[in-house]
Amino acid sequence: MKRGIFRTSVAVFLVMMLVGCAELPDITDQQENLVAEYAGGVLLRYSSKYAYRLVKNDADEDGVEDSATDTASGAAATMEPLASPEASASPSPEPGASAGPDATSDPNASEAPEESVAPEPTEEPSVSLDELYHIKGLKFSYVSSSYSNRYPSSDDAIEITAPADKVLYIVNFKIKNTGSKAIRVNLTGRPFHYELSVGGDTALPTLSLLPNGGLNYLMTTIKPGKTEKASLIFNLDRDKKGTKGNTLSITEGEKTAVIEL
User: Fold this and answer.
1) CA dihedral defined by 54, 56, 61, 67, rounded to 10 degrees?
2) Cα 191–195–199 angle (5° rounding)?
3) Considering Cα of 50, then 55, then 59, then 61, what sign does the dihedral take?
4) Phi-psi bin for 78: left (phi > 0), alpha (psi -120 to 50), beta?
5) Cβ atoms within 10 A of the Cβ of 205, count?
6) Scanning 35, 162, 163, 171, which has the fewest C-beta atoms within 10 Å of its C-beta?
7) Which has the closest alpha carbon to 54: 68, 44, 62?
8) Using CA atoms, how far apart are residues 228 and 220, in angstroms rounded to an integer?
9) Cα angle: 128, vertex 183, 185; to 5 degrees
10) What is the largest CA-CA distance in the chain?
11) Parallel, antiparallel, or unpaired for β 150-151 and 160-161?
12) Which pLDDT tens digit goes with each residue over 222-253?
């Protein structure tokens, strides 16, 4: 009963507001429409046939009847002050402003810059032995290579023997005097670098005990028209014995001679 009286009072109050029986400040047409819409919504919310009514039936799910005070507080909680037209209007964008992406931006600006690929270093072309040693009147030539347990194999005064777990690898050259005068040769003061590539490994020549010092420490005199033998001797692991396809590189400065053995 109390709830019915409260509903009737709310309806009469809202109708008086709409017809002008109460003294109210002048409102705009928009505000008047909002008041009418709100009043209609309140009446429907208290109707038992309206699905979104504000209050439930006289008894809640727990069986206790709602009081008029609870109903009033529920209705007051849903009421909000009317917003002025200025506050409800959304700000207009400034002239010339665009909500989309910048039209002047570069479409490719987001793309990652292409990575520059550095050119691969090019190897210096191999030179001949004569170009490498560059001694006027002398011609250098590669002769042969072989594996051995000792060198030389003849009955010379000095013999080089391989250790028990090693094998000697001998690379032989010949040097011919093509001039008309004897030529004194001394390679000990020149920074030659000799490197053997064998079976994926590299090796450097040993100190030669040959009479002329070997090719890496050659010191001799060659008479006109004569040829002298010079060798490089390497100590290799015994499991390398018989390996083929070896390569010898001889370098001085920016010049390199590569010999397929």
Assistant:
1) 90
2) 175
3) positive
4) alpha
5) 21
6) 163
7) 44
8) 9
9) 65
10) 145
11) antiparallel
12) 999 999 999 999 999 999 999 999 999 999 99
Q: 229 near 174, Cβ under 8 Å? A: yes
User: Hey, what amino acid is at 148?
Assistant: S
- First CA to last CA across the chain, in angstroms? 120
Residue spans of alpha helices (H) in the chain:
2-19, 29-45, 68-78, 85-88, 129-133
Judged on CB neighbours under 10 Å (0-12, 13-18, 19+), 151 is: buried
Give me the long-range contacts of 208-215 (CB less than 8 A, separation at least 24).
208/160, 208/232, 208/233, 209/158, 209/160, 210/158, 211/158, 213/188, 215/173, 215/187
Return the residue matching tokens 């609870």.
70
Given a contact cutoff of 8 angstroms between Cβ atoms, the answer to whether 29 and 37 are in contact is no
Whether the Cβ atoms of residue 98 and residue 228 lie closer than 8 Å to each other? no
Which residue in the block uniquely carries the two structure tokens 């917003």? 83
Full-model pTM: 0.53
CB 197 within 8 A of CB 144: no
| Mean pLDDT across the chain | 74
